[in-house]
Amino acid sequence: MEIWIVLSVAAAAFQTVRFVLQKKLSMGPLSAGGSTLARFLYSVPFVVPLTLALTMRTGSGIPEHTSLFWPYAIGGGLAQIVATWCVIVLFAMRNFAVGVTLMKTEVIQAAILGYLLLGDKITALGITAIILGLVGVLLLARPPGHQRGGRSDLTGLPIVLGLTSGTFFAISAVGYRAATLEIASSDPLLRATLALCVVTVMQTVILTGWLRWHEPGQVGRVITAYRSAVWIGLMSMAGSLCWFTAFTLQNAALVFAVGQIEVLFSLFVATLVFGEKITRREGVGITLITLSVVAIVLWR
Q1: Which three-class secondary structure string do you get for 122-141?
Q2: Which burial class, exposed, middle or buried, applies to 299 when counting CB atoms under 10 A from its CB (0-12, 13-18, 19+)?
Q3: Burial of 44: CB neighbours in 10 Å, binned 0-12, 13-18, 19+
Q4: CA–CA dist 236, 77 (Å, integer)
Q5: Which of 159, 109, 114, 157 minimizes the C-alpha distance to 133?
Q6: How many CB atoms lie within 10 A of CB 150?
Q7: DSSP string, 131-199
Q8: What letter does residue 94 receive in the DSSP assignment?
Q9: Rounded distance between C-alpha atoms, residue 6 and residue 242, angstroms
């Protein structure tokens, strides 16, 4: 089995655990913004020493990089902040498995954006897969007990947040892959770690400043919650390092395709940890979206 496949599965597992911890914190002392900051703030103590250790191991110092590294890294980092914030807010509105599945429309959206912005061709089978995914989204868009025909089916906040998070996660992944490719090193782990370190520190600084301005006291609550939040940081660093390294080895769309196993992980978590029940309609929607995102990568 190729290493990028193993890394993608591991990243999905770490990310599932991290989302569980973030959902619990956002239901308690922290806001969605505070829970998002916890992910980045508590990753810094892990990723910075790791980066220094890998750099010292090579003995050649920090590898050179092109000027394009910075816009790719900053753009990807900002997109990830928005995506994470959206999905945490979504968790408070819909159950865990549905929230993760809506986020996973990132693959579908990446295919569409690639066609619109880059002229990537999509086959007839690919278009069929997109339609299949849209049907799944429509099934998830209507909360249980909601009457059919309401305008909120397509414009309700949960569906908007889910699709928005998927869009920005797709943008961040493309940005991160591009950033790692701008680093002059043959070591994929070093390239991934260096890019992750730069992005994480930048995200921490930006989001801390934002919260101090817009949510006074929230940064203090993030620091107070360190006993729980430190695990978010550790899981985030481990997951992100796996994603980044996989991105250096393989196309981001293929990495995302393997990462769809996170939907299955989320089903187990929703049932075993949060005691949530998946309705038959939501189960069908989750299945259709999962099939769609895999088909997009295989057929587009």
Answers
A1: CCHHHHHHHHHHHHHHHHHH
A2: middle
A3: middle
A4: 14
A5: 109
A6: 12
A7: HHHHHHHHHHHS-TTPPTT-THHHHSHHHHHHHHHHHHHHHHHHHHHHHHHTB--S-HHHHHHHHHHHH
A8: S
A9: 9
- φ, ψ of residue 65 in degrees (nearest 5): -145, 155
> Any long-range contacts for 169-172 (C-beta under 8 Å, 24+ apart)?
169/79, 169/80, 169/83, 169/103, 169/106, 170/106, 170/107, 170/109, 170/110, 170/113, 170/256, 171/75, 171/76, 171/79, 172/76, 172/77, 172/79, 172/80, 172/83
Q: Which residue has the tokens 């107070």?
A: 224
Nearest one of 193, 198, 218, 195 to 207, comparing CA atoms: 218
Check: CB of residue 265 under 8 Å from CB of residue 16. yes
For residues 65 and 182, is the Cβ–Cβ distance under 8 A? yes
**Ordered per-residue pLDDT tens for the chain, 300 residues:** 679 888 988 998 998 888 788 777 766 778 888 888 988 999 999 999 999 998 888 776 788 999 999 999 999 999 999 998 888 787 777 665 666 677 777 777 766 766 676 565 667 776 777 677 667 766 765 555 554 544 444 456 777 788 888 889 889 988 888 899 899 888 899 999 999 999 999 999 999 999 999 999 999 999 998 888 899 899 989 999 999 999 888 877 778 777 777 777 777 777 776 676 777 877 787 788 778 767 766 665
Full-prediction pTM beyond 0.85? no
- How many residues are given for the chain? 300
Q: Could you tell me if 88 and 161 are in contact, meaning their C-beta atoms sit under 8 angstroms apart?
A: no
Tell me the residue type at 236: S
